[in-house]
Amino acid sequence: MILLVEDEANARQHFVRILSKAGHQVVEAEDGEQALALLKARGGFELVVTDLVMPKLNGFKLVDQIRAKWPKTKILLISGYLQEDTARLILDEGVEFLRKPIDSKEMIVRVNHLAPKVH
Question: What is the DSSP string of 8-23?
């Protein structure tokens, strides 16, 4: 199961459609605070796909909390503001970066790599 965290409603709906059509189960959150509440309620997710620039609790702080409480959770960071070479400074095992605008096929490849579908 994937948790998708994106504050822009149209982008969030677009990503949910992409991932759902690719066969993934997706739960959506509109900000980092809502994401943390869902993570706590479910005891974690296999993969969190999160925007970095969001109100309330940004993606960097969300990733820090995920790493502290659910260290095995894989993370796909998405941003239109951060360059991939800069993002590599914060990446570790199980964390990848995808720059907006996002190509649907590339998103599916990355997500399938981090969270293979169970048949």
Answer: SHHHHHHHHHHHHHTT
| Long-range CB pairs of 55-64, under 8 A, 24+ apart, other chains included | 55/7, 55/31, 56/31, 56/32, 57/31, 57/32, 57/33, 58/32, 59/5, 59/32, 60/90, 61/32, 62/5, 62/32, 62/35, 62/36, 63/90, 63/95
Cβ neighbours, 10 Å, residue 99: 16
The model's pLDDT over 23-53, given as tens digits with 9 standing for 90+, comes to: 999 999 999 999 999 999 999 999 999 998 8
Strands 47-51 and 2-5: parallel
What integer pLDDT is reported at residue 93 of this predicted model? 62
Question: What is the reported pTM?
Answer: 0.89
CA–CA distance, 4 with 47 (Å, rounded to integer): 9
